[in-house]
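User: Hi! I'm working on a homework problem where we have to compare a predicted structure to a textbook description. Could you give me the structure for the chain below?
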Amino acid sequence: MPRKYILLLAVALGVIVLDQWTKYLVVRELTTRFDDRPTLGERLSAMYGEPPPQGFDGLHYRSKRYIEVSDSFFRLRYAENPGAAWGLFRTLPPATRGLLFHVVSIGAVVLITWYFSKLSGKDPQERWALWGLPLVLGGAIGNYIDRIARAFVIDFLEAHWYDKAAWPSFNVADSAIVVGVGLLLVDAFVRKETPDKETPKQDKSATA
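Assistant: Happy to help. Predicted structure tokens:
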């Protein structure tokens, strides 16, 4: 297997595992979903099975606490996002929203894999894309797993400014996508196409 595909699998799988593991920890520590489920199997079944109905707060899992990392700037708080980034499309009917995310997620995976296959893996100028694409792929699959399992994505990272302004909650998969897209933007500016060699012009003065 070419080294570039080893990199693709290692980075993408690393993002997926880290994303799902942190979401498991958040559900365990910040919600009541696992309170009556002592074994790992029961907890995984509860996390990836059919979620309970929404409560009065609009959440399927009951939040029991949050963790202040920085009183004025950052906290860990359980949140659910049935929409896309920043809550886009969350007001669409569930059936329409689900179909849209299936098409977009599968299309993104196919497009990223195709684009990655076009890289030689040997050009030093490709390093931004070689790392950026796997990060985006891992993040996209991480959130897609959530949508398949329960039709909403688990978020828990909340940046704010003295509670006067807040960035929409996000997760590890979202972070990987943002970093990956940033690397691809750098790639678009840094990588230069190799100019085609000019074909020698025929001497018009030559006679047959």
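For your comparison, note the following. The beta strands are 67-70, 74-81, 153-161, 165-166. The first helix runs from residue 3 to 30. Good luck with the assignment!
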